[in-house]
Amino acid sequence: MTIEEAQQTVDTWIQTTGIRYFNELTNMAMLTEEVGEVARIIARQYGEQSFKESDKDKVLADELADVLFVVICLANQTGVNLTEALQSNLKKKTLRDTERHRNNEKLKDI
Q1: Quick one: 64 exposed, middle or buried, by C-beta within 10 A (0-12, 13-18, 19+)?
Q2: Cα-flanking dihedrals φ and ψ of residue 22, to 5°?
Q3: Are 14 and 20 in contact (CB under 8 A)?
Q4: Mean of the per-residue pLDDT values for the chain?
Q5: CA 97 → CA 71, 80, 88, 89, 109, distances in Å?
Q6: Which residues contact residue 27 at a Cβ distance below 8 angstroms, ignoring those fewer than 6 apart?
């Protein structure tokens, strides 16, 4: 699925199953909540925190997909073409960071 197809698929789902988009502020709050759930899994799976019984059924891929879904919702309702936005962002990062990371002493030992 391309990003464009994902935006269309989410829009179709919202219109048929979700009834309508939540407003932008609600979606921003939901995005924050979903990112927190990703952080919780990362802290337990890759960090030093132990899993609670209630965390054991959480799947990182599913939580990342929740984040992506809400990002796509926000893009759709604000008129952002994520394909164009990502291409533009990668161009910006390439121009800005071409030498920056190569010259970063903290990355030399990797």
Answers
A1: middle
A2: -65, 155
A3: yes
A4: 94
A5: 25, 24, 14, 12, 19
A6: 21, 70, 73, 74, 77
CA separation, residue 63 to residues 12, 66, 89 (Å): 21, 5, 24
108 pLDDT more than 90: no
pTM: 0.89
In whole angstroms, what is the distance from residue 102 CA to residue 3 CA?
30
Query: In sequence order, which residues have a C-beta less than 8 Å from that of residue 74 and are 6 or more positions away?
Result: 24, 27, 28, 31, 80
pLDDT for residue 30: 98
For the stretch 27-83, pLDDT in tens is: 999 999 999 999 999 999 999 999 888 888 899 999 999 999 999 999 999 999 999
Residue 31 structure tokens = 């995005």
**Cβ count within 10 A of residue 58:** 16
